[in-house]
User: Fold this.
Amino acid sequence: MTNNKVVCDTDEPAMSSEFSGRLFQIISRISDAVNNRLSTGDIAELKRLNPADPCIPAFWKLMVSCVGEEGIHLAGKNNRDEAEQQWAVVLSAIAHMQNQHRQGRKLGDALAEAEYSELRLTKLLRATGDTLRNLIRGMTLFLVSKGEPFDPLDLARLIFSDGKPWSESFRRQIARSYYANIM
Assistant:
């Protein structure tokens, strides 16, 4: 995991139900747009999206219509460019998962069912910054190829918890879910 500090599951001041509720609303808007309103060309653009350079029309369409200023603030970054890079990872993942996600299905459950290796899980849960964003892309493609749906809210929580005090707690939730399914 990211550090040796022990954090209780209830120690999530920034991951309040209000935060999760607002993030859920944004993720729902994005999923609806990807599944019902965007063209196949826009979806293809999002699948190829480079988070370091998200300057494509499909990205900006979703940023303006679904994410907005609320989503930038939810990312909690002082740097708007970094927040947009985080959202680029989420948007690309949802485009890859098109019609293949399930609200409430834990990410750890899906990883276990898809037989995602323990080594890859450990790398994912220890990663930060650009490394985390790159590993999430690979993880998403792996789950999509295995036909394992999961809740994109968990993916967003993983990305937006990066560097936060409650990051370790959320990562441990993923690990517990994963190991509960492989034992």
